[in-house]
Amino acid sequence: MPTGPSPEQLSKVLRLCTALAYRALDAKIMRQPAPAGQDVSLAKVANLLRDHGVELPPLLAQVLHEVAGEAGEMKPEPTVDPPEGVDLQGLTGFFAGLRMKDQP
Question: Which of 2, 54, 68, 77 could pair with 95 as two cysteines, CB 3.0-4.6 Å apart?
Answer without folding.
Answer: 68
